[in-house]
Design goal:
Layout: E1 2-6, E2 19-23, H1 28-36, H2 38-47
Antiparallel strand pairs: 1-2
Length: 66
């Protein structure tokens, strides 16, 4: 699954980041396959030099009961 969006927060906590791209995988193995895939590597090598800064976070979602 893949999502993208632009910051619309009124809290001004974006630290200069303006856009988000989120990919969801069913397993850590799926994530590893994606990261190593030649098309991903090629795209990353083209995109990363064009960016001023980037944050990448890999996490396993956990339900929080509030």
């Amino acid at each position: 699954m893949y999502y993208r969006g632009k910051d619309v927060s009124a809290e001004n906590m974006h630290q200069g980041f303006t856009h988000v791209f989120e990919s969801a995988f069913e397993s850590t193995e799926g994530l590893a396959e994606y990261v190593a895939h030649p098309a991903h590597v090629e795209y990353a090598n083209l995109l990363l030099p064009c960016l001023e800064k980037i944050v990448a976070i890999d996490y396993k979602p956990t339900i929080v009961n509030l």
